[in-house]
Each structure stands twice: as C-alpha cells, then as structure tokens.
Specification:
It is a single chain. By secondary structure, the chain is α+β, with helices and mostly antiparallel strands. It has 3 domains: 287 residues, FAD/NAD(P)-binding domain, CATH 3.50.50.60; 92 residues, Alpha-Beta Plaits; 102 residues, Glutaredoxin. The chain is built from 15 helices and 26 strands. A 6-stranded mixed sheet has the order 8-2-1-12-21-20. The chain has a 5-stranded antiparallel sheet with strand order 15-16-17-14-18. A 4-stranded mixed sheet has the order 24-23-25-26, with helices on one face. A hairpin with a 2-residue loop joins strand 20 and strand 21.
Length: 522
Amino acid sequence: MTTQVIVAGAGPVGLLTAALLDAADVRVEVFERNEGPSKHSKATTMHPRTLEVLATVETVGGRRLAEVLVDHGTPVSSTHFAVLPDRLDYSGLDTPFPFVLLIAQADTERFLADHLRWRGVPVHYGQAVWGWEKTDSGLRVRVGDRARTAAYLVGADGAHSRVREQASIPFPGVPPTMVGFVADVELADPPLVARQVWHRDTGYVSAVPMQGGVWRLFGAEPADTGLTSEQVRQRQAMPLGLEELRATLRRVAATDFGLRAASWISRASDSTRRAARYRSGRVLLAGDAAHVHLPAGGQGLNAGLQDAANLAWKLAAEIHGWAPAQLIDGAFCYEHERRHVAEQLMANTLAQGVLMHTFTAGGKALRDLVSDLISRGGDTAEELAGWLSGLSLSYPQPEGTHPLVGTRAPDLPLTDGGTLHQALRHDRYLLLDLTPDSGLAELGSAHIDVRAAPSPSGTWSALRAVLVRPDGYIAHATGSTDPLNLATTLAQWTTATGAIPTAAQELQLQIVMFVVASATSA
C-alpha cells in the first residue's frame, strides 16, 4: 500500500503524530536518523492535558495509553513554576488526571513505539530524511540512500530539523543568554522529596526523583547567565563531567547529595525560537522542529504532543477529502492555532527564565513576591496552573463565534455511559446533544458521532448542542434547537470547500427537512 504520510523523527512527537494519523485511518511510516530509540530523557514531565489526549488512544487489550503511562510513572499533585518555593496545586483541577506525571521520555517513547508496533505502523531507525522533491501527486522523499513517495511529510526531527532547513523556513527568535546543566544521576544521600535550592550568590539546583532510583538534576550558576550567544555556544560545546557536576552542586547547594554515578549529563540554554511557518505546501513541522525554549515547567514535550494532536486529525481530514478550507489554511488551521500557542509558551518560559536566572537582590525580591502570590491561591495560582497543565489553553476565537469556541471541552458524563473524552474519535467530531429529548440523533453522519448528555450547570446550562473536535476542543456551541441551522453548520465543518455533497450528507439534509416539516405541521 502507498504511504500517505512520512514522519521524520521517532521522538515522542513523531511517534504520537503517527499513532493519531493511524487512528484516523491514514497510512503512515516513521523514519528516524538514530540507530535506535534514545536512552536519554530530555523531558520527564507530563501535564494533565497531554494525558487527556493520550487517553483517547486505545492500545493493546483495550487499555488507553494514558493508563499505561500512569501505571509506569509517578503522579505528583503539585508542580513548580520557575523553581519557586511555593508550588502550584493540581489536585483540584477539573480533569481525570489532576496531577503531574513524572516519567522518563525514553519510557514514553518506548510505550508509543510498542503501540505502533502492535498497530503495524512501520518505524525505521537508522534512516534519516534528507530532503524531497515535489511530484504531480505529492512528494518524493529522500530517505537514507533511497527515495520514498508520500502525499505529505511531517518534520518532527528536533530543534536542528533538516526538514525545516530543506523547506527554507526561517527559525527566528531570542538569542540565548545562559547555559545550565541537566543530568540523570544516582545519589547516595538524596533528599527525602523533590528539592529546589535557589541562592542569589551561588545559583540554583533542582533535584527530582524519577523511577528506578534515578534523580533528575538541573540548575545554573550566576557566572553562566548574562552571556552572549557566542559565549553560550562555547559553553555548550564544553563537555560536562561527573567531577565538575559534583563541584557545581557543592557550590550551589553546599552538598553533592552523595553523587556517585550519572547515566546522562548535558548542558541546556534558554534559546527561544519559533518557525516562521508551520507548513510549506505538503510539508509540516511539529514539536522542537517548530519551536524551542527554556525547558521551564516541563512544557516542551507537552507542547509538542499537543502539536501532534492538533495536526493529525486535520491532516487526516485533508487526506480523506472532507476538510473544509478553514481547517487547511483558514482560521482553524494547524499553523494558525499552534503558532498562537507557541507565542504564549515562549512568553511564559522567558518570564520564568527571568525569575530563575536573575541572581540579584531585585531578582530575589521578585521571586519572593510571585511565590507569595502562588501560596495564597486565587486567580494568580489558578492562571499559572492553567498555563502549565494545559487545561486553560484556548485557540483564537473568530469574530462572531460562541465564547466557548476554541476552548477545551470538559470531560462531561454521557447519558448512555462513559464520558466525553472517552467518546472522542480521531476521524470524526462528537456532537454533544444537550436537548431534553435527545432530539439531535438524526444529525449523525460518517464524520459526526452524536451522544446525549445531561444538561450541565453554569456556563453550559443554556446550550443545546456542542460540536467537539477530535482533539477535544469546541468547534461550535449553540443554545438553538433549529435542526436546519445546525445541519448547515455541521456541513460547513465536514465538507471540503467547493465539494459536491456526498450521499450521506444529502440524506442527512433530507432527514433534517423531514424533521422540520413534521414539527411545522404539528
């Protein structure tokens, strides 16, 4: 069978992109330049919204991917913002996953790769994507020393993306000004719980427990901040050994925690960049290929996985021929929505960098002020928790649409059992029927499942129909029960611009007209 999408990069973003495309009945293959899965874990944190997405992927034995990861990782009910002493509380968040999941990126990759193997999706290691040429029907992609054909190419090949380079997409941003350390280590004298140390004179270090007795250490010293980009480049090029790391810990925290071994030691900077475009014709970018930033709050991996969730269903709809223009290059397209998120992400990680790396009296005062605001709870703490958890993320709202459009749909219970998130499918929308008599069942189609739910209270109490996208965000909401208007709106979301209505859509409209006529005669 002909491959419809080639994904460059077998990190978590590339693997999830492939998994979601496969779930939407797209033929996909993954190519990775490294000889095998990575044994190192740049990311260790998974936030609630990402777990909600992974809960929509059914894997071996009917289990959801989120369940598999939660069983393997360590749930923690709070998280830090900018290594401040007062932490953000996730325990009261409106989600099935009110916690941060600590899990090594290597383990996340392994479970995603296992899922793709079970599904029969090929993942090729040791085969880099080098470039491509356009053809009449798609792309001829150069992989290793051969060529493969595909309709689309997704570059999930990291910050130094060859796909982005070959597409001549600029990668502008804010030059780095600091370089810190990050390491996975064994400690003979570890702290009892996760620990953050910050001193204006010596710097900061954070120690976080992982699985198998491994601890993740990261931090920076004052001398490694306020640098030029050239100084950062020189510092990053210098190897960091165990003895130097031990000495750094003693200078910063007055202890090396009994550091006895390290499986991985590296340096990280606060380079902040975003691709000028996320799409060039049949080539798309996701994850670090599209944006990089200071790894503050564990948001990088999560943003990349959310890229995958936004991209996959829209690309699948385009491939299957039912995507309207608004999903391809309009107000709801992948690039427009995720570029907006990347801009917010860059702003909040730059702000965290100031809080983390300003080793002055003023820097300490600012840290104390923000930490105190977090400790009080209320709006500030809720807003920051919403940012990091991903639950408050919303996409730009086109003028004239309902205020809920672009926001995340909560995991509401459904009348016939299960919940909204459990009912999501990657190849179709979910129409939530909130009418008293479940009167919207006739509006179901090949691209829309209709499920009834008890009318929620609060903001949702006046609603009668809510169209939820495959990625869990709201496409349309209305308090009207006019079936003809609703059917017209649904057709706008499920019909390629200029396309002739399919037989199913014609039948749907006929049913609606019959319902309208019956209601009128009654």
